[in-house]
Amino acid sequence: MITILACKQSDIPNLALLNHMLIEDEQAENSMSILQLEQRMTAFLDSEYKAFLIKTDEKCVGYALVNIAQKPLYLRQFFICREYRRMGYGKEAFYALLNHLQVDEIDLDVYAWNHRGMSFWKSLGFSERCYNLRFKK
Asked: CB neighbours (10 Å) of residue 123?
């Protein structure tokens, strides 16, 4: 059974490590160090964002970072640790998070090259609303 726990400042080092793994897995264009990610997570938690640890049997299996000021809410980061994927934890965690937040609508972004991520979100019923494009010379 999945448990959603609101994070505290003391969780920031763990959140930064999890965020670093998310960045690697998404192949994001982000070269921040763990220390920089800790500083960024601190800024998030001091703003309109809330972070949540995703646990099962007292083990941390992932985390989520949500902008609670946006309507609908915006799921900025959602991560399930590699060793817990393809076991149903992602789906269960997502619905547990919605229940915890008491919402039935939420937005998120997926990198165009993140085909596994896109497949996961579409399997939960998400659909495209817009395309974000970038020109770089």
From this structure: 10
- Residue 94 token pair: 């997502």
Q: Coil, strand or helix: which one is 20? A: helix
Backbone angles phi, psi at 77, to 5 degrees: -140, 135
62's CB contacts (< 8 A; 6+ apart) are: 18, 53, 54, 78, 79, 80, 81, 84, 89, 90, 93
Under 8 Å between Cβ of 90 and 108:
no
- pLDDT tens digits, residue range 110-130? 999 999 999 999 999 999 998
pLDDT at position 133 over 90 = no
Q: Which two tokens stand for residue 72?
A: 């609908």
**Alpha helical stretches, state H, the chain:** 12-26, 34-45, 89-101, 115-123
73-80/106-108 β-pairing: parallel
Measure the CA–CA gap between 80 and 60, rounded to whole angstroms. 9
